[in-house]
Design brief:
The chain is α/β, with parallel strands linked by helices. The chain has helices at about 5-15, 25-30, 40-45, 60-70, 85, 90-100, 115, 130-135, 150-160, 175-185, 200-205, 210-220, 235-240, 270-280, 290-305, and strands spanning about 15-20, 35, 50-55, 75, 105-110, 120-125, 140-145, 165, 190-195, 210, 225-230, 245-250. The structure holds 1,3-dihydroxyacetonephosphate (13P) and iron/sulfur cluster. 1,3-dihydroxyacetonephosphate (13P) binds near residues 37, 38, 125, 126 and 127.
Length: about 300
């Protein structure tokens, strides 16, 4: 079955666009109209003229798109594609946590539910977290959630002491320091490029720390000819496409898997993309009142990211 051709026909018929995160299977990235990081997906969703957005990623990405573009139909190929990091921060528990720290600004990573965003002053992604935190005076008390590792990294690079929620991503916490050290020995010329959702001990042995888009960008600009990549291995597809003369080595996980995949992201398939567009389901629906609260910190992020 030529899913790509069939998706293309439907897309034209329905004035739909397909957006995909870098962690999607190569086949999905290749048929998407836009492939990007969490920030870019939100920015594109906010300004698209399409009637339908098919968000190939995980649920919070579809939810963010729907909150930003409430008049559009937002579809996700698999409604089970959640996120362990978003799950590590239930809204009621986060609300009680916030209550313990009066006068604190609440900064939340985009990997959260709409209910958590509704409790937040400003949303960030890993691309803009540092610069947005730095827009606040140094003495401003801040709560940062839900990713502990990202918050800890931002505390270190900005010299802050934000109060951190103790959440994490099961993919990025699974990288093996030992195996990365072995790779470094094997390829001493290869810089280690790491996502800030990784644990501190991994960050400490890295040459560059940044979001998926920042990692991609770094690899393009660097003089190095090969790289050790410490994030979900879906990004290697785009890296190899964009920089065919460079070599990209995926860092292995603790369980030994050479390609550390997000099992939520990988629930999406071309067949599911086709079916969701054909039947216009599963559709992302966000309660109107909740969306009105959640949109404010997302729009604030977009304004601060211009
Ligand atoms: P970025 O694309 O913002 O780097 O985020 C990575 C991620 O884990 C998305 O779920
Ligand atoms: Fe969530 Fe981690 Fe998967 Fe990203 S890689 S969607 S943070 S579980």
């Amino acid at each position: 079955m030529d899913w790509g051709k069939k998706i293309d026909e439907l897309k034209k018929q329905k004035n739909a666009i397909i957006m995909a995160h870098y962690y999607q299977d190569a086949a999905i990235q290749d048929i998407a109209d836009y492939v990007g990081d969490s920030l870019a997906l939100a920015q594109w969703a906010a300004k698209t003229q399409a009637d339908i957005i098919v968000m190939c990623g995980v649920h919070f990405m579809g939810e963010t798109a729907k909150i930003l573009s409430p008049d559009k139909k937002v579809l996700v190929p698999d409604v089970q594609a959640g996120c362990s990091l978003a799950d590590s921060c239930p809204a009621d528990a986060f609300a009680s946590f916030i209550e313990k720290y009066p006068n604190h600004t609440v900064i939340s990573y985009v990997n959260t539910t709409a209910a958590v965003k509704a409790l937040t002053d400003v949303v960030v992604t890993s691309t803009n977290a540092k610069s947005i935190v730095e827009t606040f005076p140094k003495n401003q008390p801040i709560i940062f959630g839900p990713d502990y590792n990202l918050g800890n990294y931002i505390n270190q690079v900005t010299g802050r002491n934000m109060v951190l929620w103790n959440g994490g991503c099961h993919v990025h916490e699974k990288f093996s320091v030992q195996k990365i050290k072995e790779l470094k020995k094997q390829y001493p010329d290869a810089p280690v490029l790491t996502h800030p959702e990784c644990k501190q001990e991994v960050v400490e042995i890295s040459d560059f720390v940044g979001s998926t888009a920042a990692i991609l960008n770094y690899a393009g600009k660097s003089e190095a000819k090969r790289f050790i990549v410490v994030t979900e291995c879906g990004i290697l597809h785009k890296m190899r496409q964009q920089y065919p003369d460079k070599e990209f080595i995926a860092a292995p996980a603790i369980d030994g898997s050479a390609c550390n995949e997000c099992n939520y992201m990988r629930l999406n398939t071309l067949e599911k993309v086709y079916n969701c567009l054909l039947h216009e389901t599963p559709e992302v629906i966000v309660d109107k009142e909740l969306a009105e609260k959640a949109v404010k910190p997302i729009v604030k992020m977009l304004e601060l990211s211009r």
